[in-house]
Amino acid sequence: MTAPAPVLAVTHAPWRRLALPLFLLLIMGIAWGGSFSLLRIARIDGASGFGIAFWEGCGSAIPLLLLMLVTRQKLPLDRRSLIFYALSGFFGITIPGSTLFFAALFLPAGIVSMSNALVPLATYGFALIIALERFTVPRAFGLLVGLAGVLLVLLPETSLPDPSMAHWALLCFAASISYGVQNIYVAKATPPGMSALAMSAGTLLGGGLLVLPIVIATDGFFSMMPPWGQAQWAVVGMMTVNSSCTVAFLWMIRTAGPVFTSQCAYLVVLFGMLWGIVIFGESHSGWIWAALALMVTGVLLVSLRQRRAP
User: Fold this and answer.
1) Tens digits of per-residue pLDDT, 92-133?
2) Per-residue model confidence as pLDDT tens digits over 53-100
3) pTM of the full predicted structure?
4) How many Cβ atoms sit within 10 Å of the Cβ of residue 102?
5) Is the distance from CB of 36 to CB of 113 less than 8 angstroms?
C-alpha cells in the first residue's frame, strides 16, 4: 500500500475502539484454527495440496466478487492494483499453498496450526527492518523467545511423533514467514482508496491464479463437481472461512496495524490445537507444549508498547 490509511495506536485506544478488533481477533482465531483440521480432512480424503490452494484462492474469491457486484463495487484493474493482487496473493496464498497444504498430510493438525505463532514474530521482524516499527529490547527479546520455541519443535528427537516430520514442520514455518511478508506488504503497498473487500477478492484471486500453473504441471486439479465426499465439504468449509476472515483480516491491517492484526495468529494456534484434539484425538509431547508456551510468550512480548507506524 503506497498510501495506507493511518494506523491507529490501538493499544492506547478507548475500549469502544478496541472492542471490535478484539472480537474479530477471537472469531478469526476460532475459524482459521478450525481450517487446519478441515485441511487435514481434505488431504486424508485424497485432495491435492496444490488443488486445495487453488480453490482456497479462486474459490474463496467468488463470493466476495458476487458481493461486490451486489453492492455495485468495482474491482480496480489498473496496473498498480494488478501488481498488488499478484504480490499479496503470492505471499498469502501461493507460497503457503505450496508448503503448508502439502505438509498437512504428514503432520498433526495441531502442529501445522502451531507454526502460525511465527506470523506476528516474522511481521515484527520485517517491520523492524523497514522502520515501520521501532526497536525495543522487550520486543526484540520476544523474537528470540519465539525462535527458541521453533527450535524446541525441530531439534529434540522426541518433540514430534516421528523425527522425520521435522522437515515438514520447517515447511510450515516457511509458510508463516511468507504470511509475515504479506502483512507488511499489505500495510505498505495497498493502492489508495482500495476497499477491504476489493483487497480481499483481488488477493485471493491473484494467489489462486498464480498457483494454477503448479496445479496443471503436477496434475493436481481437485474437482468440486458432485457427488461430494468429505474432501469437497472440507474445502467448502475452508473457502467459507477464508473468504470471510480475509476481509476482516485485511480491514484490520489498515485500521489497527499489521503487528496488532497478526496477533490473531496465536489464537489460531490455540484453537487449531484444540480442534485437532477434539476432531482427531491428537496428543502432543511436552516439548511441543513448551514450544507453544515460548512462541506465545514471544508474541506477547512483541505486542508490548505498539506504536503508531510512521
Assistant:
1) 989 987 788 788 888 888 888 887 777 877 888 888 888 777
2) 899 889 889 988 998 999 888 899 999 999 999 999 999 989 987 788
3) 0.77
4) 20
5) yes
